[in-house]
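Sample intake sheet
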Amino acid sequence: MDVLAFGVQADEKPLLERAFAGRHDLRCLDVFLTEDTAPLAAGHEAVSTSVNADLGARVLRVLAEGGTRMVAQRSTGFNNIDLDVARDLGLTVARVSYYSPYAVAEFAWTLAMAVNRRIVRAAHRTRDFDFRLDGLLGRDMRGRTAGVLGTGKIGEAFARIAHGFGMRLLGWDLAENPACLDLGMEYVGKDELLASCDLVSLHVPLTSGTRHLLDASALASMKDDAILVNSSRGGLVDTDALVAELRAGRFAGVGLDVYESEAGLFYLDKSIEGVDDDTLARLMTFPNVLVTSHQAYYTAEAVGQIVEATLRNVTDYAEGRRNENVLVPAG
């Protein structure tokens, strides 16, 4: 089957090509799927897309008109896909329902410790042979309280690391995770968690019900010296409200691997043309904020699992099977 993969990273391309070799005819593009690039898929029965692809109604219609019948998204999240329109068009849509939770959880902790211990500022100083410690004072994590919003596989992995640091654990989710309870986690309401925690990490999917889960009111309820980490989805945080809190001098540190308006920015080189996103630009000016480009999942283990799941999704579709990754079955 002819497959066109959009938004393929340089490190990802050889893994995809090796996996698909001899199974399907695969073509990889580094451009992302948008309304402008969607016509490139004409004649390809299947397309594979990345998390920042535009799979809204207009793009899906262009794909369907060009002969595409299957969309294989290389991510767990699918908030960028209009599933109702896909269903109406008779498109099969599949995602990757599982990959290494440790990749994201470990990176979330990387962000937390980097802002806590001022690693970026320290590294910039020492490259200039400035070895002062002024402004680099961090805090022990042991004995402090970690709040985990979303205690699925990734949240559980994050909690295990927090437990290893000797932290008290608070959790918030629709259902309690027995493994987190075994770690001593106490489940509380969101408001209590935010008001009580020294470190808050987000691990919930982005839905209509979780968009701006941390809005102005929620952010205001957090401790002035709290650390906030988001390695899940940018839309969980009201970024304008976060900027307002930072301008008021709040938060010991903020680590963001995602941003609610990251589409069209993240995974692209904007170093020459710059960006016209004033909110993102303002975020970058705060010395206690660290922004990375949606790379928490980006380990050899996780990407390998994503590639294998994508191959299975395409192969199962081609052979008339339906697996647990299918969001919209064949029409």
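Comment: The mean pLDDT is 96. The CA atoms of residues 298 and 326 lie 23 Å apart.
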